[in-house]
Amino acid sequence: MVYKRIVVCLDVKDGKTTKGIKFKNNVDIGDPVEMAEKYCKEGADELVFYDITASSDNRGIMIETLEKVAEKISVPFTVGGGIASINDIRRVLLSGADKISINSQAVKNPSLIEEGASLFGRQCIVLGMDALADPAMPSGYRIIINGGRVSTELDALEWAQEAEKLGAGEIVLNSIDFDGLKQCYEIKLTDMISSNVSIPVVASGGAGKPEHLGDMFMKTKADAALVASMVHYGNYTIKQIKEYLHKCGIPVKLDW
């Protein structure tokens, strides 16, 4: 059986887990190492760690923090933010990450996807996509980079398909319009991308309650759901989310 995965996202800034709405007004909400350990114990299938200002600050990722997180968890761990070279990929993987996520740097240098997949295996290379609704684009969505700060001329669907051809093994698809609102996932966007690529797609941006995950899984071909606010603020636990999905007939891994 292929299980639908629940992935907890830790956005990190200045060494602290942070959360905002539509990439703005971020507030610190805890220690990423402690939170990673907690979610691992609660039953998260995977964790994603984003150093959200590494690209905009033009600096490398916080390796020491990654090593501390890797020591505390036993689930697959994806790391993104400021990864701009093959050497960066190597350093992050050697620090304990199972996969690396490239977003802004992949747009600026698409060959990084191809080279990374060739050297480390496409299962290690995740494309992070931040998409904003824009009727001027062929698919209706534009790619935004540098943590929501810079618009590109890339169409979301075209970029997803191109990245798959280059060697990306997975896509984390985030809707900027829905990010942090806790109202629902962007179903139209998620369905479009997941139906038109053959690699796994992780839906991101907008989950506020278990019903939102159930609705997304039933209406799209997404393989996983990324959650942040709904668990960070204590509204729901991973167990509650999985129990709801299980009752809906959606296959999830129950560890209790």
Key terms for this structure?
about 260 residues; globular; eight-stranded parallel barrel; alpha/beta; TIM Barrel; 12 strands
Annotation, overall tally of beta strands:
12
Order of helices and strands: EEEHEHEHEHHEEEHEHEHEHH
Helix vs. strand class: alpha/beta
Mean pLDDT: 89
CATH class call: Alpha Beta
Helix content: 25-40%
Would you give an account of this structure?
By secondary structure, this protein is of the alpha/beta class. It has one domain: Aldolase class I (TIM Barrel, Alpha-Beta Barrel), CATH 3.20.20.70. Helix content is 35%, strand content 27%. It has 10 helices and 12 strands. It has helices spanning 32-42, 63-72, 86-94, 104-108, 111-120, 156-166, 187-195, 210-219, 229-232, 238-247; strands at 5-13, 16-21, 24-30, 46-51, 77-80, 99-102, 125-133, 141-145, 150-155, 170-175, 201-204, 224-227. It has an 8-stranded parallel barrel, surrounded by 6 helices. Strand 7 and strand 8 form a beta hairpin. The two termini are 18 Å apart. The relative contact order is 0.15.
